[in-house]
Amino acid sequence: MSDKETIETEEEVKPVVKEEIKKEETKRATKDPNVIYVGNKPPMTYVMAVITGFNMSDSDEVTLKARGRAISTAVDVAEIVRSRFFKDAKVHNLSIGTEQITPREGGNPRNVSTMEITLKKD
Fold it and tell me: Is 74 helix (H, G, I), strand (E, B) or coil?
């Protein structure tokens, strides 16, 4: 395979990857009542959201999603919920990953760590 052929195939793949990223962003934008996006608010705000998620929905699962600096807050929220409010809640699933974020003003993309913590009531 020559260099020219490699470049052509990479250029053909880029639009497909961009379409998949847009589809993933659309999926994330839809509001799931059992998913809590953790940001820079105080942890007790998110603890109350988890308690509400457990009490108001039919599901016995709540997922905390966080990126970057908010990951430590998400871990704190999960531990507060488990130790103080729902002693029977367990961490059902824990996943970590990296997202590539492109700045709005342009420039080089950055890698941002992500974490999802799924709590399940027994």
Answer: helix
What is the average pLDDT value for the chain, to the nearest integer?
83
Roughly how many angstroms between the first and final C-alpha of the chain, as a whole number?
Answer: 56
Tens digits of residue pLDDT in 13-44 = 555 555 555 555 555 555 777 899 999 999 99
Count of Cβ atoms closer than 10 Å to residue 121 Cβ: 14
Pair 64, 38: CB distance under 8 Å:
yes
User: 52-89: buried (b, 16+ CB within 10 Å) or exposed (e) per residue?
Assistant: ebbeeeeeebbbbbbbeebbebbbbbbeebbeeebeeb
pTM above 0.85, yes or no: no
CA quadruple 113, 46, 57, 25: dihedral sign: negative
Query: What one-letter code names the amino acid at 90?
Result: K
Q: How many CB atoms lie within 10 A of CB 115?
A: 20
